[in-house]
Amino acid sequence: MKRSASENFGQILIVLLLALLCVSVLYPFIYMLAISLNVGSDAAKGGVYLWPRHFTWDNFNVVLGNAVIRHAFGITVIRTLVGTASGLLITLLAAFGLSYRSLPLRGTLLGYVLITMLFNGGLIPFYIQLHQLHLLNSFWVYIVPTAFSAWNMFVMMKFIIGIPEALIESAELDGASPLRILWSVIVPLSKPMLAAIGLFTGVMHWNDWFAGAFYVSDQNLIPVQTFLQQLLSAQDLASVLGSNNNVEALVRGTVLTNITLMSIKMATVMVSAIPILCVYPFLQRYFVKGVLIGSVKG
């Protein structure tokens, strides 16, 4: 069917608006990449916007050659893997159990979980609770408090309830236990939903700097995002180098005058952002489908 002039104009306007939105999202990333690949002293003069004027790997050599940053990066990777796996497992077990309508006190349990979504005790009581559980200044302060998500549990439960009961009943008639039903029936049918929620959980763990800044005082336990937050709040490069007590390792093989605090910041942002961005293409086919099914299907 032939489109009218107004429809063609509307399509062109939509394309232009979407293109403008893409540019506004991509440009800051491109700008930071250009700064990180440019000689720091030259970038400080200005004029570097889309591509490096004087290309160099010095900034990345400094960042990736620093033992403190590498260790923080390793903490982030381990935290993301362990936190995502434990969060999916514990939340899925709770959602599967509460999906049984015949479960005793099911309404009371659901109401209790719902209350935790609406109200919380605040930061200070939460800090005291972490202290009493001996989680402060330990790796498990990243894992245990986030092992269960009420919102994710309701999304999972909604999805599980939408699975035909005949599949579960047939498995029960064959003598399958609840755990066998969960592993052999629920999990294979829930891959899109689990992929979407796993992506949300993994991004949350990867991007979180708050826990490392306020619940951990040991520099050997801080994730890379907390280190980046400390780096971004620094006023000069000397303070950053001195705070890490690793000046020689940080600048070994690099001309110190070629790097600046801004170039190191941009390189650190790239190193911390690129890995999680690479995960999206592999989960894209599950992402939208999982969110829609888990939110709408009843």
Reconstruct the topology from this structure.
Layout: H1 5-36, H2 40-43, H3 58-64, H4 67-98, H5 106-118, H6 123-132, H7 150-162, H8 165-173, H9 178-189, H10 191-207, H11 210-214, H12 224-232, H13 237-244, H14 247-251, H15 261-277, H16 280-296
Helix pairs in contact: 1-15, 3-15, 4-7, 4-10, 7-16, 10-16, 12-15
Strand segment tally = 0
The CATH topology corresponds to: MetI-like fold
Order of helices and strands: HHHHHHHHHHHHHHHH
Unreliable segments (pLDDT under 50, ≥5 consecutive)? Answer: 243-254, 294-298
Report the sheet with the most strands, covering strand number, pairing sense and barrel closure. Answer: none
Radius of gyration: 24 Å
CATH superfamily: MetI-like
CATH class: Mainly Alpha
Proportion in helices: over 70%
Q: What is the structural class?
A: mainly alpha
Count of DSSP H/I helices? 16
Mean pLDDT: 81
Bin the strand percentage: under 5%
Organism: Cohnella zeiphila
Transmembrane segments: 12-34, 72-97, 109-128, 140-161, 181-206, 259-283
GO biological process, one term: transmembrane transport
Subcellular location: Cell membrane
Textual characterization of the structure:
The structure is a single chain. This protein has 298 residues and is an all-alpha fold. It is built from 16 helices and no strands. It has a single domain (59-298), classed as MetI-like (MetI-like fold), CATH 1.10.3720. Helices cover 70% and strands 0% of the residues. The longest helix has 32 residues, at 5-36. The chain is globular. It starts with a helix and ends with a helix.
